[in-house]
Amino acid sequence: MRPALRERGVNLVSLTPFLSLESPGQDFERLCGELNQPVKVASGADISPKLNYREYYLKQLKHFSKRLWSFSSIK
């Protein structure tokens, strides 16, 4: 079905558990073969920002307390 859709310009990757989760690795390899893409991709450095949880939650608590106080002063 996937090749027929691709001929019409539709790229399809199914991740639904209702079809099959027996061999997602093999399905991925087959898809890479159909698209002439490499199966293995070299991983690079993690560029996601590191979160300082203490600072983050203190900021959220301050924000919440300001909203709470502004709400209580309306009455």
Characterise this structure.
- This protein has 75 residues and is mainly α.
- It is 49% helix and 0% strand.
- The protein has three helices and no strands.
- It has helices at 2-7, 24-34, 53-72.
- The protein starts with a helix and ends with a helix.
- 0% of the residues are buried.
- The model has no long low-confidence stretch (mean pLDDT 80).
Proportion in β-strands: under 5%
Shape: elongated
The radius of gyration is 24 Å
Helix content estimate: 40-55%
- Number-wise, the strands total 0
Structural classification: mainly alpha
Number of helical segments? 3
| Unreliable parts | none
* Main sheet summary: none
Helix and strand element order? HHH
Mean pLDDT: 80
Termini Cα gap: 62 Å
Write the layout of secondary structure elements.
Layout: H1 2-7, H2 24-34, H3 53-72
